[in-house]
């Protein structure tokens, strides 16, 4: 895989590869995306193969600007335009009814399409230089932790030659995937919480956004009960539960703690996470990845606060946890 610098030469190389139907991973403000020409079915096929993703799971189409939406979506409700105008470019994905020309391979056979205009300067330069839409799921193998640095992308896809290059834009600012709002039906629905909070969206829209039960509603891999998971079993616990577990002298345990009050850490691997949800989110995946690489028996995560600013974080931790508990890989 080529590691490209995010300068005009690197961007031009990325454009050439994308025009050939090759895959190029690129940074966004949320996580790295695994990009391919959204109008090239062969490139779309390569994305599914590289990720090991089931073909019925739809991809997000990344656009250079909101106006480009009309080529991909029809009957766009006013509310969707309002969110697009306010939050794009930014960490928000809109699910809309697709126009007839949109390939079934992108939508996983569904009548809807996911659209997003990313804010990261490298993503924007790439989209403008390419001059067309890029299909890009998160740049990780299916079910695994998303990549928030170019090195993570190299680690995820080091086997085989399926990904031609990665544009190195450093660490992603937000670190968690975009908020997804589904506008394909009468009432808007939150399909995936992100760092744009639900209350802000509801306030802007002046209406309620429904929260479907996990596992219900449209297919979205972010909605599977198990996703975003390290291979090491992960458990979310209170501070006192962690302390009790460490007292049993389990040396092969890593701890992601929120505070220093856990006494007697001993030889355990541990990370103190910031109490600010934005800082916590931006570092979470990198820490989980590093702790996972230690191949310990278990990763213990101290339960973050349950308040709304922590919704996206708690959502990802729940999914990481379920998968480990059920032992599915
Ligand atoms: O922040 C992000 O959204 C990142 C960056 C790269 O843009 N992308 C990302 O893509 O997280 P991905 O494919 O890993 O997650 C997109 C989610 C999936 O759960 C997918 O099923 C859902 O969006 N999705 C895409 N199109 C959909 C559709 N038409 N209906 C319902 N869900 C859809
Ligand atoms: Mg993903």
Overview in brief:
The chain is an alpha/beta fold. Helices cover 32% and strands 17% of the residues. Residues 137-138, 146 line the site of magnesium ion (MG).
Polypeptide structure, described:
By secondary structure, the protein is of the alpha/beta class. 32% of the residues lie in helices and 17% in strands. It folds into two domains: 2-223, DHBP synthase (Alpha-Beta Complex); 234-326, Threonylcarbamoyl-AMP synthase, C-terminal domain (Rossmann fold). Strands 1-8-2-3-7-4-6-5-9-10 form a ten-stranded mixed sheet, with helices on both faces. α1 (8-19) crosses α5. The protein is globular, with a radius of gyration of 20 Å. Bound molecules: threonylcarbamoyladenylate and magnesium ion (MG). Residues 137-138, 146 line the site of magnesium ion. Residues 316-329 have a biased composition (Basic and acidic residues). It is found in: Cytoplasm. Required for the formation of a threonylcarbamoyl group on adenosine at position 37 (t(6)A37) in tRNAs that read codons beginning with adenine. InterPro entries: DHBP_synth_RibB-like_a/b_dom (IPR017945), Sua5-like_dom (IPR006070), Sua5/YwlC_C (IPR038385), Sua5_C (IPR005145), T(6)A37_SUA5 (IPR010923), TC-AMP_synthase_SUA5 (IPR050156).
- Share of β-strand residues: 15-25%
Identify the strand order in the major beta sheet. 1-8-2-3-7-4-6-5-9-10
Q: Fill in the CATH topology of the largest domain.
A: DHBP synthase
Distinct ligands: threonylcarbamoyladenylate, magnesium ion
Percent of residues in helices: 25-40%
Structural class: alpha/beta
User: Mind summarizing the main beta sheet?
Assistant: 10 strands, mixed
CATH top level of the largest domain is Alpha Beta
